[in-house]
Amino acid sequence: MSKQATFAEKDSELIKKIETYQRTQQLPSFIEAVRSLCKKGLQINELINQKR
Prior knowledge:
single chain, mainly alpha, 2 helices, about 0% strand
């Protein structure tokens, strides 16, 4: 499964935050940082939904 994401100029602040996260977590690539953040975000969402 091959997917691609394109970021617009309005996403520049988000990109900077992801790049900072990548560096602080010592992840090898931008996409690894995105994967990590998505996984954590989905886990948090599950926890929130379980408490409802």
